[in-house]
Write a structure and sequence with these properties.
Elements: H1 4-24, H2 33-53, H3 61-85
Helix pairs in contact: 1-2, 1-3, 2-3
Amino acid sequence: MASIKNLKKDINYTLGDIIGYVTEKVDPKGDNKEVEAIIDETITTFDVLIAKVNQKGVENKKAHYNEISADLETKATALVERINKI
């Protein structure tokens, strides 16, 4: 099991990279509602995952953190697919 510190870093770097990548897609003259929606969803995902990491009273910590890691991968992949459709 990776450390909690590394899991938090993975969440931060992965979702931060997604926000950085999607901001490159911004057209200054165009309508950016989809880009804004993706950024909002990314921030919400970050908040939810960090809250799960900081959750107290978890019985099986290893399974809990592995679930968070898998959830990060799934959500990040979905966000990148949405970005690629723009």
